[in-house]
Design brief:
Layout lengths: L1 E8 L5 H10 L6 E6 L6 H5 L6 E5 L4 H4 L2 H12 L5 E5 L6 H9 L6 E11 L3 H7 L3 H6 L3 E5 L8 H5 L7 E3 L8 H4 L5 H4 L4 H4 L11 E7 L5 H9 L5 E8 L9 E7 L2 E7 L9 E7 L6 H6 L13 H4 L22 H6 L1
Parallel strand pairs: 1-4, 1-5, 2-3, 2-4, 5-6, 6-7
Antiparallel strand pairs: 8-12, 9-10, 9-12, 10-11
Bound molecules: guanosine-5'-triphosphate.
Protein name: GTP-binding protein
Catalytic activity: GTP + H2O = GDP + phosphate + H(+)
Pfam families: cobW, CobW_C
């Protein structure tokens, strides 16, 4: 039976980063993935890089709410036919893990079995998120493996987590770099280690999904770097997470600029547009009561007049792998695309 590992964690904690790490270090393990995102555009699916043997991508809502057990069985059935060693479901950052676990345990497909719950915690945001969302505590308690991510940015508050879950291993990491054997080789042990009770799996409190909303913005017009940075520096009220891709279209900067914000964090990642895709800006904003004028504000960040090339310095100082601002950064060649992404294209 193929183990189905559920990967959860609050918005922006590092699930896709961890999944990409697993995919790039799988060494012969055949992995199928289901990627679920909350926004209308499944940015996470576009950000999955590496050797995926089979992938199903679902956007626009949490799998825990939009799919019933039969839908999940259908997806698992499609993947199970592909002779995989493991299936990883990356839940949306607002999913209710209990509901997902319940649905997986109810699966009638005897080729798959529940392989455990892995929860990614954000070392920077953990205290704030759990103060704001006490309902997350219940899900923490049923995790089989807790990955404390972003330890390069903040110390993991392990004692605090222990008050919610006293038994599951807690692995502090940066950039989701866990030892893949923790999931793949030991997956059969994970659920056995935890006896899930009826109470564990039935929680009637509202989960975070209910209070978060999303705004999507797309345009094929190039964006103005200074105006967009002003938006990012003074983010609209209610915005917690923003992700997607930006097209600046300036000479030397026609690449795809992936953008990520989580709380105060902001990073850009530059890569070529996948073959066959038109350059366009696609942004998903997620938050609580996000200022409804946000899309208009983004619309006003499009280029309507001449833009100086040096304006890109406002962006390049937040580029992955760039430590200091220098004009040279403007002339660096784009990063190579991962092989798998090229193959997929
Ligand atoms: N410095 C640092 N950044 C990280 C780390 N892990 C992830 N990030 C960055 O944090 C941002 C969010 O990471 P993702 O992997 O997209 O998070 P996610 O949990 O998939 O996000 P959602 O699906 O929207 O909930 C990205 O810009 C990552 O590059 C880390 O350990 N250290």
């Amino acid at each position: 039976m193929i183990p189905v590992v559920l990967l959860t964690g609050f918005l922006g904690s590092g699930k896709t980063t961890l999944l990409n790490h697993l995919l790039s270090s799988a060494r012969g393990t055949k992995i199928g993935v289901i990627v679920n995102d909350f926004g209308q555009i499944n940015v996470d699916a576009m950000a999955v890089a590496g050797q995926v043997d089979s992938m199903i991508s679902l956007g626009n809502g949490c799998l825990c709410c939009v799919a019933d057990t039969e839908d999940i069985d259908e997806m698992l059935g499609k993947l199970a036919g592909a002779k995989l060693d493991v299936i990883v479901i990356e839940a949306s950052g607002l999913a209710d893990p209990q509901a997902m676990v319940r649905k997986l345990l109810a699966s009638k497909d005897d080729r798959v079995r529940y392989g455990g719950l892995v929860t990614v915690l954000d070392a920077v945001e953990f205290e704030r998120t759990h103060a704001e969302h006490p309902e997350l505590a219940k899900a923490l308690a049923i995790a089989d493996l807790l990955v404390f991510n972003k330890t390069d940015l903040a110390d993991p508050v392990i004692e605090s987590v222990r008050t919610y879950n006293s038994t599951a291993p807690i692995v502090p990491v940066a950039h989701g770099r866990i030892d893949p054997s923790l999931l793949f080789d030991r997956a059969p042990e994970l659920p056995v280690a935890r006896q899930l009770t009826f109470d564990d799996l039935h929680d009637h409190s509202e989960h975070a999904h209910a209070v978060y909303d999303t705004i999507t913005f797309t345009t094929t017009e190039p964006m103005h770097p200074v105006l967009l940075m002003d938006f990012l520096d003074n983010r609209p009220a209610g915005l917690y997470r923003m992700k997607g891709f930006v097209y600046f279209g300036l000479p030397g900067h026609t690449d795809r600029f992936g953008v990520q914000t989580v709380g105060n964090y902001l990073r850009f990642h530059r890569s070529p547009w996948p073959r066959g895709t038109k350059p366009e800006t696609q942004l998903v904003l997620i938050g609580k009561d996000i200022d409804s004028t946000s899309a208009d504000w983004l619309e006003a960040c499009q280029q309507t007049g001449p833009v100086a090339l040096d304006d890109m310095l406002w962006v390049t100082r937040y580029l992955d792998g760039v430590d200091d601002i220098s004009v040279d950064t403007l002339h660096e060649p784009p990063q190579e695309r991962p092989e798998a992404e090229q193959d997929e294209a």
